[in-house]
Amino acid sequence: MSQLEDKSMGQPGGGESPLGVRSSTSGKGWILWVTLLVVVAVVGYYFYHRSEAASQAAKPGGGAGASAGGGRRGMTGPVPVTVEAAAKGDIGVYMDALGTVTPTYTATITPQASGVITGVHYREGQSVRKGDALIDIDPRPYEATLMEAQGTLERDTNILAQAQMDLQRYRDAWAKNAINKQLLDDQEKIVLQDGGTVKNDQGTVNYDQVELGYCHISAPIAGQVGLRLVDPGNVVQAGGTNALVVITQMQPTTVIFTLAEDTLGQVEQQMRKMHSLPVEAWDRNSAKKLAVGKLMTINNQIDTTTGTVKLRATFANANGALFPNQFVNTRLLVDTLSGATLIPTGAVQHNGDAAFVYVIDEAAKVAHMRMVKTAVSDGGLVAVTGINPGDEVATSSFDKLQDKVKIVVAKQAMAANPTEGNTP
To answer: What residue ranges define each of the domains in the chain, with the CATH number in brackets?
Structure first.
């Protein structure tokens, strides 16, 4: 037998044939895959139950108490709530806007006469009345010029008087045919010329008196003086742009604010009906009411760049709460809703565009979800439709409230606790 046949006959009896090796490897791979699937299933089962336990603990009444309850998992006790009764009343419809305090009058006084300042008669921040002395400029040059003009006027006035006497003599002589008509006519024209000279002199005197008056500056309006801008000894020039003093009227004052042009029709309609609309001025944070005034006028043009119109309201400002150029929040009352159902603003909950409240049934100790429609709000109250005056609505515990959930009124429970604590 050949060597090739001997090798062929020896292969079936051997354990290391190629077929035997492949069979052993397939069996081990199958066991490995089964083991891996078992491990994945165990890990998934563990994390699944762990997430279930966390979700139960996050629910109201979940956690240890719910787990111990077995089949009662998720059930909770009554939800404590505070309530407020809906009331029937009136509520204002306001338009809010940003405004600026703008004084009715502001006088910036510049020099109209040249010279040295000889006196400053005001204190910084002083309140002055109309006509009070403020600043003096050396008047001597202007007094001398006025005296010269007055002398010229006096001389020419006497010349006119002499010409008038001569005219009367010529008239008497003409009546007696003692002179010719030409002399009389010439004298009449001389009188007219001298009269014009006197009138010119009088104008010069009046002008010099005005110039002299500019040396004594007084308050043109009543108001508050700003910081001192000049001192005695300073030299000023007539027509200069530097201010000598600034006076701002503080009482009364006005506020200018803007509204969208779409609201103009409603405001004008109410103005025609009521002739005056109340305006409130609040501080920058809308936390404190500063003053109450009334709408005075509406501007005669709409700003095309912003689509707004300016309005001016006047305020007595008796307490000085409004300061010039101060930014304030204004509230213009344009209408009043009468007989509206009012509830606290915090009682209204929202789900997207829908608004609802929880109406409390005191007898059944149950909260009922009720859809409502809101109108205007003011002062922590909102006008709604969908409930009736007298209905009690929940004002707290909204994270636990649901439709038809059992509730207990918190203020009643709190009132009972002290009594229970004092019971022996």
So the answer is: 79-90+339-422 (2.40.420.20), 106-247 (2.40.50.100), 251-338 (2.40.30.170)
